[in-house]
Design a protein that fits this description.
The chain is 59% helix and 13% strand. With 143 residues, the protein is α+β, with helices and mostly antiparallel strands.
């Protein structure tokens, strides 16, 4: 591949970038074709810097601490960027852990409710044995 072919590939890659593509779609054809690779890359940097500002939650402020001022930023929103393979694996692991935790806590809460219902109805599965949960519940919430 010679240098002119490499430049054409780089220029096409820049034109396929979503930020540049969106910008160029709104221009007349003669203007679109007049941009050089350097101009397109600078446009991408200038326009790409603004894309971070679209968050559902965007809280920024500063705190004065002695003679210095510190800033903090809390942003949250939908992730619109492509994740790498490692990020996808970590995301899947975290989602699995959250789902497992939710199912575990829900199961324990359900078993507690069933135990309290059993105790309220006076059903004794093992005579002479109690976990003490029903007594604690009565003392705390029913008195």
């Amino acid at each position: 591949m010679d240098i002119s072919d490499e430049n054409r590939v780089i220029r096409q890659e820049l034109r396929d970038d979503p930020i540049i593509k969106n910008l160029l779609e709104r221009m007349p054809d003669e203007v679109k074709e007049s941009f050089s690779e350097a101009q397109l890359s600078h446009l991408k940097v200038a326009l790409g810097a603004r894309s971070w500002g679209k968050h559902a939650v965007d809280f920024r402020s500063t705190v004065k601490f002695f003679r210095y001022r510190y800033y903090y930023v809390f942003v949250a929103g939908r992730n619109r960027r492509e994740m790498s393979r490692k990020e996808k694996q970590i995301s899947l692991l975290i989602q699995s852990a959250i789902l497992t935790g939710f199912i575990g806590i829900s199961t324990l809460f359900g078993l507690l409710l069933l135990y309290l219902l059993k105790s309220a109805l006076g059903i004794d599965l093992f005579s002479g044995f109690s976990l003490g949960i029903w007594d604690w519940f009565k003392e705390t919430f029913l008195n």
